[in-house]
Amino acid sequence: MHEPTNGATVHEPLLSIAGEIANAAFITLNGRELLTDKNGDFSERILLSPGYNLFTIAAEDTFGRMEEKTIEIVYRP
Q: Which residues contact 55 (CB under 8 A, 6 or more apart)?
């Protein structure tokens, strides 16, 4: 994961979540599918709610193995 840093406090309502994933057949952000480019890079912009925000990125490979990563962000306008 390139950005954001887990536990960060931000002051802008629009957040970019970006990273790189290898060998994933399927990747989701809070249950919504993300698309990757040919290098496995992904990027998604999210509108934050004031206060505490929680995001879960899940990836599944072709053998059905899953891995999840949780990101916690605090938005203070």
A: 17, 29, 30, 46, 70, 71, 73
